[in-house]
Write a structure and sequence with these properties.
By secondary structure, this protein is α+β, with helices and mostly antiparallel strands. The chain is built from four helices and four strands; from the N terminus they run H-E-H-E-E-H-H-E. It has a four-stranded antiparallel β-sheet.
């Protein structure tokens, strides 16, 4: 699991200049693969490095929260630990960050150490009460 899992084909089907909100679904390891604390600890290290990279590209963290229960649908396979909504002004800004050497060398190792599973879903706005300025 790493930057090599970036779905370049799927992203290529999107308008590269449209704004996008990435829905992040995460399941953490009990222990970080590098032995430095829990999976959550590794994820916090990842976030500390990644959030400034998001902001440098005009993006922002909109919302994060602990996943508590599957309220509708099958529980199996749908139990997540944490969710994050991240706004990028363009799909290109997201791709630029994810494919940068800085992300791959400094950030992604912490994500890989901390996350047993991490899914990112690109969304196109249909309705929002949030307005990013």
């Amino acid at each position: 699991m790493g930057v090599d899992l970036l779905n370049v084909r799927g992203l290529a089907e999107l308008d590269r200049e449209m704004p996008v909100v990435m829905v992040n679904l995460m399941r953490f390891r009990e222990r970080s693969l590098d032995g430095d604390g829990s999976g959550w600890d590794a994820y916090l290290r990842y976030s500390a490095l990644t959030v400034p990279m998001i902001k440098a590209r005009g993006g922002t963290l909109l919302w994060t929260g602990d996943a508590k229960a599957v309220a509708l649908g099958q529980q199996a396979g749908n139990q997540w630990d944490y969710l994050a909504l991240v706004y990028y002004p363009t799909v290109s800004a997201f791709i630029d960050m994810m494919t940068s050497a800085d992300y791959e060398q400094r950030c992604d190792p912490h994500r890989t150490n901390g996350c047993a599973e991490h899914v990112i879903i690109a969304t196109k706005e249909a309705y929002s009460k949030f307005k990013v300025v």
